Amino acid sequence: MTAPVTLARVTKRFGALVALREIDFRVEPGEFMAFAGHNGAGKTTLFKLILGLTFPTEGTVEVFGKSTAGLGSATQRRSIGFLPENVVFSGNMTGLELLRFYARLKNVEASQCSKMLDRVDLSEAANRRVKTYSKGMRQRLGLAQMFLGEPSLLILDEPTTGLDPESRRQFRELIDERRRAGVTVLLSSHALSEFEEIVDRIAILRAGSLVACGTLDGLRASSALPVTLRIAVPSEDRETLRKAVAGLADMTEVNGSKVDLVCPPNRQPELVRRLKDSASSEGQEIRLPRLEDIYLHYQAGARQTEEAKR
Amino acid sequence: MNPVLTIAAREIREGVRNKWVQGATLVLFAIALSLALLGSTPAGTVKASALAVIVVSLSSLSIFLLPLIALILSYDGIAGEAERGTLLLLLSYPVARWQIIFGKFLGHTAILAIATIIGYGGVGFVVGFTSEGTGDAWMPFLAMIGSSVLLGAVFAAIGTLVSAFARERAIAAGLALGLWLFFVIVFDMVLLGILAGDSNQRIGPGVVPYLLMLNPADIYRYFNLTGFENVRTFAGMAGLGGSIEIAPGLLIGALFAWIAVPLTLAATVFRRRVL
């Protein structure tokens, strides 16, 4: 099966500015890939390249095995759904009218529109003008247009920015549903932990370079970020515990009843074994580094490299 | 449905709901009606038909208002979508960039045509059937409506060019307003100033009508005030029209050129635009 997206040594320059530098990656069918990076790291430019809205200065971008130079071709575009960042739909149209407009452009039957509105839970607001919609409703309308024609590749640029927690969850569930249906998803987000459980791979961009790319477990291992064990220990037993884990983990007090033991990931099994011997501990809770921690780790690493170069 | 028509249909729907467009059209109709009713009063004394009087007064009104409405509709076309983030979305669909330009232009022109035909046509009916001796003025009147639609289309094309060119919506609005002032007011004043200052008559009288071709608003005026004998008499253009004549067909051709050139430029600018 052809890879939905392949980038080979892609560099994009805008005059003197290097927006993307020698990017290489391949997205497999059905994969959910998240792109993380600071503002201006090149995420949006990357998406524009994949959509064929702009072309690489060097290297090649292929979508469904074909160069994006041919993306004007209707068939290729019909298999892609896109939700740009901060999209504000024209307020004077109703949700249904707007969706019908996009359906016509994609040659999708008008009857699909109400089905899509139903999927994103907007059926009741279908005949209301978009200017009366809340931010969450507008983003869901954005999802509905993206789902038109059941594309096999979805691209979402910062889709959850500015949404309240409830809308975020609803949004994530809708994306996850597509992912389970076998659709390939590319998504950029600031709120990384939100998609932690459903992403297959994470690509971390910094100043146009891909500083890390891999599965959550893979990135965890290669980052070698410490693992935290949170356990309940009565205060009188704490000194004994400190001695027991000495040289293996650092102990910090969280509150009156709990302490954190921080150790390198490879020494976690040993720590767990030693804790078994000490009867004083209970209520163990292992806290692995979160996506956000990994992201910050790689960003800091890249920053150090940049500074060393100067 | 063809993408051009799909986009045009959406522009029509949105334009009709646009409060600015509604307001400007209402003003246009109100002024046209009052001009028609008040302007027909002297018709009996100067022996000009009521409809011919209206052609003169309405075309003078159109020169100011139609370009304004057209620019209000069109300046936002591309620049507004870019600012709202919907332009990227639209371009991710199977639509070519020139189709977006033409679709928007077509939609805006359709709104202008509907407003002009209903507004002016309505006024024409009121006057035409309430006064006598209008028979020979119907042709100039219909020609006035037709050329008004063309004038609107010219400025819709100019507005589309401005919209494709400007990086921000506010800049597009400013540019559109500036162009309106230039074509509707400044151009004639400058031309008049040059002619008045040209005491040695280095600019021959035969050249002036061709200088007017540089301004679509003047082409429109020239066409409506000199195109037909009965109107020309009333417009006080008999002398001018007689000595230096440009065929009405050529004038209409010039208006079409004023649509084609900005529109082609808009498509070119938009195609090259870095997103």
Would you mind describing this structure in some detail?
The complex is a heterodimer of chains A (310) and B (275). Chain A is an alpha/beta fold. Helix content of chain A is 34%, strand content 27%. Chain A has helices at 43-50, 74-78, 95-105, 111-119, 135-147, 165-180, 216-223, 238-244, 268-277, 291-309, and strands at residues 5-14, 17-27, 32-37, 58-63, 66-67, 80-83, 153-157, 184-188, 201-206, 209-214, 227-232, 250-253, 258-263, 282-287. Chain A has a six-stranded mixed beta sheet, sandwiched between helices. In chain A, strands 2-1-4-5 form a four-stranded antiparallel beta sheet, covered by helices on one side. Chain A has a four-stranded antiparallel beta sheet with strand order 12-13-11-14, with no helix packed on it. In chain A, strand 9 (201-206) and strand 10 form a beta hairpin. The two termini of chain A are 44 Å apart. Helices cover 82% and strands 0% of the residues of chain B. Chain B has 14 helices and no strands. In chain B, helix 4 packs antiparallel against helix 11 (216-226), helix 7 packs antiparallel against helix 8 (138-165) and helix 8 (138-165) runs antiparallel to helix 11. The two termini of chain B are 27 Å apart. The A-B interface holds A 14, 48, 51, 53-54, 72-74, 77-78, 80, 82-90, 92-93, 97, 101-102, 104-107, 145 and B 1, 3, 6-7, 9-10, 13-14, 17-18, 84-86, 88-96, 274-275.
Short characterization:
The complex is a heterodimer of chains A (310) and B (275). By secondary structure, chain A is of the alpha/beta class.
Strand tally of chain B:
0
Unreliable stretches of chain B: 43-47
Let me know the average pLDDT of chain B. Answer: 85
- Span between N and C termini of chain B? 27 Å
Helix-strand makeup class of chain A: alpha/beta
| Rg of chain B, Cα atoms, Å | 20 Å
Mean pLDDT of chain A: 88
Tell me roughly what share of residues is in helical segments of chain B. Answer: over 70%
Tally of contiguous helical segments of chain A: 10
Please tell me how large the radius of gyration of chain A is: 23 Å
By secondary-structure content and strand pairing, the structural class of chain B works out as mainly alpha
**Order of neighbouring strands in the sheet with most strands of chain A:** 6-7-8-3-9-10
SS field, number of helical segments of chain B:
14
What is the largest interface, and how many residues per chain?
A: A-B, 30 and 24 residues
Helices and strands of chain A, in N-to-C order? EEEHEEHEHHHEHEEEHEHEEHEH
Shape annotation of chain A: globular
What series of H and E elements makes up the topology of chain B? HHHHHHHHHHHHHH
The quaternary state of the protein chains shown equals heterodimer
